[in-house]
Amino acid sequence: MLIFALICNSLAAVLFILAAVKYGTGPVPVTYHGLILEREGTELTPSLTLILTGLYRAFAGAMLAIGLLIVALSLGPIRAGALWAEVAVLMAGLAFAAGATLTPHRVEQVTGVQTPWRLSLLMGGLVCVGFIAAQLA
Predict the structure, then answer these.
(1) Within a 10 A sphere around the Cβ of 28, how many other Cβ atoms?
(2) What pTM value is reported for the model?
(3) Number of helices (H) and strands (E), helices first, in the chain?
(4) pLDDT at residue 113, as a whole number
(5) What region, left, alpha or beta, does residue 5 occupy, with left being phi > 0 and alpha being psi -120 to 50 degrees?
């Protein structure tokens, strides 16, 4: 079961890192934010673009940090059976997933524009399954 836990953690880490790359290097605003702003008739001014860029890059840094944390702890302490490392990955993944699932889900309900809350839910689910599998190892 430990190998399965490490696979779940690895998949979650890859998703965190890929999302970090998207928000860290991608266009501002992302497609769904642009659609929401367009529907509201909000003009994308240079200042608004600057603010969004700062938020995206900070968000990307947080996702990259979580992804790297998962990799580092999975390759060392989790593989060695350290409960504290398993709990750290679970807490970091769930803290991210809670906000990145619930808020975009609400935005989607209000605006009708599809948001990436499902991906965030998957990321949180993977760390949960990884934690459970590690406990059964």
Answers:
(1) 18
(2) 0.94
(3) 5, 0
(4) 97
(5) alpha
Q: How far, in Å, CA of 100 to CA of 98, rounded?
A: 6
On the CB side of 5, CA atoms within 13 Å amount to: 27
Integer Cα distance of 75 and 78 in angstroms: 7
- pLDDT, tens digit, for every residue of 53-109? 999 999 999 999 999 999 999 999 999 999 999 999 999 999 999 999 999 999 999
In single-letter form, the type of residue at position 132 comes to: I
- Where is 87: in which H helix or E strand? helix 83-111
Q: Count CB-CB contacts under 10 A for residue 63.
A: 24
Please tell me the distance from the alpha carbon of residue 128 to that of residue 135, in angstroms, as a whole number.
11
How far, rounded to the nearest angstrom, does the alpha carbon of residue 72 sit from its chain's CA centroid?
17
Q: Between the CA of residue 52 and those of 44, 58, 72, 115, what are the distances in Å?
A: 10, 10, 30, 16
